[in-house]
Design goal:
Elements lengths: L2 E7 L4 E6 L9 E3 L1 H11 L3 E8 L10 H9 L2 E10 L3 E9 L3 E9 L14 E8 L5 E6 L5 H16 L16 H14 L9 E9 L3 E9 L1
Parallel strand pairs: 1-4
Antiparallel strand pairs: 1-11, 2-3, 4-6, 5-6, 7-8, 8-9, 10-11
Helix pairs in contact: 1-2, 3-4
């Protein structure tokens, strides 16, 4: 059986073709989830990992985005908030699947104990979902932070979660003390090592593109 998996940073559905000054403070763009659904249809995946997704909140732009996109596709979904802006507006990762979800949960990534890098810090999480296909597969979804210390914590957490999965044989890389370039390389290797595996299968992963209008489309991986 061949499965196509896709990662997609939707930037909470911002439409860079439509500027609405004052409606979206600081960005001035409308939100259009129909474009996100259209891009997913065009790529033809079976499972999609989404980053920078908003959930239902009191402000107009905080809607149930994962559920809305899944409804447009006729798919199943799960939203895992990592943070709540102002304590009321959820923001995090989501998974979309053609196949039913058997289970799904959010696992928080620890914040760095020391925040001494000149960059933005944000609490992150891992979404773990088991999907009813090919005998049941588990998919991990994460979105690493900007600081190197956040990336190290994310890699360590992803690997610890992955090590609890049947058949996973990867090891947590020693990223501590590595240079910035080395850490980036370790992070890339960690992502590919944590991708879903099937016994006796072949997998091919390739970057797709950056779409200035519809967010960042990451990797599409085929398993079969």
């Amino acid at each position: 059986m061949k499965l196509r998996m896709m990662t997609y940073n939707i930037q909470h559905g911002l439409d860079y073709n439509c500027r609405l000054p004052g409606r979206h403070p600081g960005l001035g763009h409308d939100i259009d989830l129909t474009q996100i659904a259209a891009v997913i249809r065009m790529q033809g995946p079976d499972i999609v990992a989404l980053n920078e997704v908003r959930g239902l909140g009191p402000a107009w732009e905080y809607t149930a985005q994962a559920e809305t996109i899944a409804g447009m596709l006729g798919w199943h979904c799960y939203f895992a908030p990592a943070i709540w802006f102002d304590g009321t507006s959820p923001y995090g990762n989501a998974i979309l699947s053609r196949y039913p979800l058997l289970s799904a949960e959010r696992i928080l990534i620890p914040d760095p104990e020391v925040k001494d890098e000149d960059t933005y810090y944000e609490t992150r999480c891992v979404l773990r979902a088991k999907i009813a296909v090919a005998g049941g597969i588990t998919v991990l979804v994460s979105h690493f932070g900007l600081a190197q210390s956040e990336k190290r914590n994310a890699v360590a957490k992803d690997f610890r979660v992955a090590q609890g999965l049947q058949g996973f044989q990867g090891q947590i890389p020693d990223a501590y003390g590595a240079s910035s370039g080395q850490e980036d390389d370790i992070r890339r290797k960690a992502v590919f090592s944590c991708q879903g595996r099937f016994e006796g299968s072949r997998q091919r992963s390739e970057p797709i593109r950056r779409d200035a209008e519809c967010g960042d489309i990451g990797n599409r991986t085929e398993h079969g």
